[in-house]
Amino acid sequence: MLLRVGHRFVRVESRRRAGRFVQGLLAGLARVNCWTVAEAVGDRTPDGMQNLLSRATWDADGVRDDLREVVVEQLGDRDAMLVIDETGDLKKGVEPVGVQRQYTGTAGRIENSQMSVFLVYSTPAGHTFIDRELYLPESWAGDQTRRERAGVPAHNLFTTKSRLALAMITRALEAGVKVGWVTGDEAYGKDAAGLRDPLEARDQAYVLAVACDHRIPGAGGENARADERAAALPKRAWQKLSAGAGAKGRRYCLWARIRLRLAGKTGYHWMLMRRNRRTGDTAFYRCYSPRRVSLAELARVAGRRWTIEETFQTGKELTGLDQHQVRTWTSWYRWTTLVMLAHAFLAIAAAHTRDTPPPEGLIPSTRNEIRHLYAQLTLQPARRAADVLTWSAWRRRHQHQARQSHYQRQHQQPAPNHELQLEY
């Protein structure tokens, strides 16, 4: 993978240092920053790594484009989807670019944080980041002093997160990435002008979450809340369908949909609803497709959104996505791009290990396990390779036994009720 991006670096020293930086990100460090990465790869000081992020001459956006090509080549599938979401990194002080007190789902409250929007390429084979954009709040966008100090380019003005998401989706589609669907949470589904309408103009199908108070047109032309329309549906409108496989087996929920006939709109529009079988909690989605699709297909797409949550989790736990201590615009984009390289390596390696069935009693190698083996066998002097591999087999056997127990408990539950699909 590093060979594919090498031409984006002007000097060979920078190219080699970027390779060592990615190795350091995969070294299993308790804390990931320029100091710890430099020490892990044998540098005597962090100066070279800091220079790589701030002053060296290389094209981070070009590396992103090359990375996207590699990911599509290695994970590409006719069932590919694009998933959008944001994440917040908790930060101290006010100097790092984009940091202010704002709500972040990471903490579940208003905190001093830095927000960014990511695009994930998701297929049955695997999922990983293919694009990223830093969110610049209005307080930053209009403060020339802070902009200059953080090196924010003059053309980067305040842009909503939906517009950032649209820019990344458009970039991928115009680069030739073939996907069936776009999906994301309600922060993006609520924005018709910023995201839904432009996607429809491209005939790009989507399933985007919306809030329970989202207004949808009724049969008489009046607007009603989504939760009110859901409450009025008869019991026969709900079907037990799978949203895909989870860590503990198939994820079954009750699903229903309402056909929306919107004036001046072409294609098929629905309000999709997902109800938890135990709690009764209901989630809502605005859906569009240029062709008719089944309720089961919409449920499957909505269920794929979880892949970006897992990508954020593994990106932070395994490759230090949120642990950077950079302050400037350029350094943030470079750190994040190198993290994307490291994460893509793990995702692609994990996908390839699934091409060959594992020995009986073991689960396939996970990204976590591959990172561990890479650190032990490649980056650190192991006492004996056989010892490391024995521990790997032990962990995977334990995980296999746990998964089998979950599947056995699930099989004891009643089988899904395949009722006739009704459209409202």
Automatic annotation (TrEMBL):
<dbReference type="InterPro" id="IPR038721">
    <property type="entry name" value="IS701-like_DDE_dom"/>
</dbReference>
<dbReference type="InterPro" id="IPR039365">
    <property type="entry name" value="IS701-like"/>
</dbReference>
<dbReference type="InterPro" id="IPR012337">
    <property type="entry name" value="RNaseH-like_sf"/>
</dbReference>
<feature type="region of interest" description="Disordered">
    <location>
        <begin position="401"/>
        <end position="424"/>
    </location>
</feature>
<protein>
    <submittedName>
        <fullName>IS701 family transposase</fullName>
    </submittedName>
</protein>
<dbReference type="Pfam" id="PF13546">
    <property type="entry name" value="DDE_5"/>
</dbReference>
<feature type="domain" description="Transposase IS701-like DDE">
    <location>
        <begin position="13"/>
        <end position="216"/>
    </location>
</feature>
